[in-house]
Each structure stands twice: as structure tokens, then as C-alpha cells.
Design a protein that fits this description.
Order of helices and strands: HHHHHHHHHHHHEEHHHHHH
Number of helices: 18
Oligomer: single chain
């Protein structure tokens, strides 16, 4: 549901709003995502871990701690907004300043989801997120339809809907708390996980910020449309792996795992065929959904599709490494790949624009695949992979 409403919202933006408005909207969302680190999002992982063992005190104190940290975001967003208002884009500046007071509600009160995951209330998660997604889509489409060029009203509506649902769901989930136990060290664990997430937050958002600053909001709008299907497919790849993962390994007598190469190869070929079909139909799909206004996005979107099979193969290798308790190896390889990617963003985007972002993304996925594969091959005999 969340994926469908997300795509429908993008279609509404492309059809009803100007490129400048949509580009500035994406720019503000990227700034919001990077600033989320202030709210110590790593605590959410600790909440999942410990509430699954009936230590609900982590949710109580963790959500409170995250909210308090999020208050720092108010003056910070006001400062950043004032800078853009006076030196860059008045529209972005006003937008950032108008939503600053909602920052703690937006980022600081979203721990209800991790709490429900820890409690294994997956039905509730689906229902709550579906209701939110539909309401958010309806409100934003209405606002865009009535005031397509009013960036402040659009971004404020988005933040208000999120904040209201965060408040409601936080109050509801509080009723599911059974005790106030909390293990020692959960704060330290949350801080460490947050520190690890900083590089990922930059990787997922700095490309849009650089493009917005150097190439302008209209080019950012073209780029955002170009990557929307590609990023949804990357999510789809992970969902596919959730289904076939049990078939990737079979236990041997010594309880070790043997990678089923035929299953992996067959799945990879299916993904490759699927991506090939998507590449062929992208021109018609994009013109149908996003109109000729975003015709320039087509060639970029087709190139990005090539990354999907690469990501699929890499995810299979990572699953195997996780099965061998080599999570630290995965994290190390991701950090190396993302750091290289970030450097290339800053170097190549100013030179080649959107093509620079595409090259940087290819380098990231290929580097990560190479590092994971080399480690796997060097330890193949140890893991019984040969």
C-alpha cells in the first residue's frame, strides 16, 4: 500500500505541480531526512530488539529521549531556512521555517512502528500504515490540486498529517506496554547505531541536495522522477529475497549451509528478464504517468534499471554472509562503498550533472558487490561454498 500511494503521489505532483515546486519539495524532504540523525534513530533498532523480550521500558524512555533530542531540530531548521531565504531560494527558506516546529513530532514520535515490530503486531503495522498512506495521499493530492505552486502549504500539509498520525499511534501503542523494564546499555547501543546510519542517510539524500543546489529545482524534479521506479524496484528486490531466502540454503549434516546456485541463478535470470521488460516499456510508462513534461527522465530511468540485477546478486551474497555471522564485514564494505560514492557525487555531479549521479551509483553497487564477492571467495573453502 505504501509503495502504491507513494507512486500515485509522484504522479499527482508530476501532473499538477510545476517542476520547480516538485524539485523544491524533494529538496526539503532530503534536508529533513539528513537532519533526522538529530533524533537518534538508532534507538528504534534497540526498541525492536528489547521490546521483543518484554522490556517495554526501552520504548517508553527511548521515545521520550528521541523527542527531547528532536527539539534541537527546531532552531536548526530555522537557521537553515533563514539562510536559504536570504541567500538562495525564498520558497525553500519559507518552507523549512514553516515546518520547523513540527520537526520533533515528525521525527521524534515515530517509534511506534519499531515498537509494534518488536511486539510482532504486524497486522496493526499494516493497518496503521495503510490508513496513514491513504489519508496522506488524499490530503496532499487535494492541496496540490487547489494550490499547486504553494510549496509552503504542500510541505506543511505533509508534515501535519505525519505529525498527527505519530501522536495518535503513539497514544494507542502506549496501551500495549506491559512493563517498564529496561536493560542497561540500550542508550549506548542506540547512539552507536545512529552513528552508523549517518553515512547511509547521506548516501540516500546528498545526491538530491547537490543536484538541487548546483543544477536547480527543475533538474532535481527530473532526477527524482527518473529514480522513482528504480528505487521502488530495489525495495521489490528485497521483498523477493524475503520469499526465496529459505530456498537459498539447505542444511548439511554438520549444520553448515550450502548455497543453492541453481536457485540463485534462476532468480537472477527472472529479475534480469523483468528489468529488461521494464526498460522497454519505460518510455510509454513515463509518458503515460508523468506526462511529456518529464520526457528527459526516461533515458536516466532506463540506465538506472541496470543497477537492479546488480543489487539483487549483491543482496544474495549479503544474506549468505549474514548466515555466517559476518555482519561486520557487510557494514565495513558498505562504509567503504558509500564513502567512495559520496566523493564521486561531489566530484562528478558538478561536471556531468545527472549522469554524474548515475555513474556514482554504479560505482557504489559494483564496489560493494566486488568487496562482498572477494571476501566470499577467499573464505569459500571455510564456508563449504566450493
Amino acid at each position: 500500500m505504501f509503495l502504491v500511494t507513494g507512486i500515485l503521489l509522484t504522479v499527482a505532483f508530476s501532473r499538477l505541480a510545476t517542476k520547480e515546486t516538485f524539485g523544491n519539495y524533494q529538496f526539503i524532504l532530503s534536508i529533513l531526512s539528513i537532519l533526522s540523525v538529530i533524533s537518534i534513530p538508532g534507538i528504534n533498532v534497540a526498541i525492536i530488539k528489547y521490546t521483543s523480550h518484554e522490556k517495554d521500558g526501552v520504548y517508553i524512555r527511548g521515545s521520550r529521549l528521541r523527542f527531547l533530542y528532536s527539539l534541537i531540530g527546531i532552531p536548526l531548521m530555522l537557521i537553515i531556512g533563514a539562510y536559504f531565504y536570504y541567500y538562495d531560494s525564498r520558497a525553500v527558506g519559507i518552507g523549512l521555517m514553516s515546518i520547523s516546529v513540527l520537526f520533533p513530532l515528525f521525527h521524534g514520535l515515530n517509534s511506534w512502528g519499531p515498537f509494534l515490530v518488536g511486539k510482532k503486531r504486524f497486522k496493526y503495522i499494516f493497518i496503521y500504515k495503510s490508513v496513514y498512506s491513504v489519508v496522506n495521499l488524499a490530503v496532499l493530492v487535494l492541496v496540490i490540486f487547489l494550490s499547486s505552486e504553494n510549496l509552503t502549504l504542500i510541505i506543511l500539509s505533509y508534515m501535519l498529517v505525519n505529525s498527527i498520525f505519530n501522536i495518535i499511534y503513539t497514544l494507542i501503542t502506549r496501551k500495549l506496554i506491559k512493563d517498564s523494564k529496561e536493560p542497561p546499555g540500550w542508550r549506548r547501543e542506540g547512539y552507536k547505531l545512529t552513528a552508523r546510519s549517518i553515512i547511509s542517510l547521506l548516501y540516500n539524500n546528498v545526491d538530491k541536495i547537490i543536484i538541487g543546489l548546483l543544477l536547480g529545482p527543475e533538474e532535481l524534479a527530473v532526477y527524482s522522477i527518473a529514480v522513482v521506479i528504480y528505487r521502488k524496484l530495489l525495495f521489490f528486490v528485497k521483498e523477493v529475497l524475503n520469499v526465496i531466502t529459505p530456498k537459498l540454503f539447505e542444511k548439511t549434516k554438520d549444520e553448515d549451509y550450502k548455497l543453492e546456485k541453481k536457485t540463485m541463478l534462476f532468480a537472477a535470470l527472472l529479475i534480469l528478464l523483468f528489468v529488461a521488460i521494464i526498460i522497454i516499456i519505460i518510455p510509454r510508462m513515463y509518458l503515460l504517468f508523468f506526462s511529456e513534461k518529464y520526457a528527459d527522465s526516461i533515458r536516466y530511468a532506463q540506465i538506472y534499471m541496470i543497477i537492479v540485477p546488480i543489487s539483487f546478486i549483491n543482496n544474495i551474497i549479503q544474506i549468505f554472509l549474514i548466515g555466517k555471522n559476518k555482519i561486520n564485514v557487510i557494514i565495513r564494505n558498505q562504509v567503504i562503498s558509500i564513502c567512495l560514492n559520496l566523493v564521486l557525487y561531489f566530484v562528478l555531479i558538478p561536471i556531468w550533472g545527472i549522469y554524474g549521479a548515475i555513474i556514482s551509483s554504479f560505482v557504489y553497487f559494483l564496489t560493494l558487490l566486488l568487496l562482498n564477492y572477494v571476501f566470499l571467495r577467499r573464505n569459500s573453502r571455510k564456508y563449504g561454498y566450493e
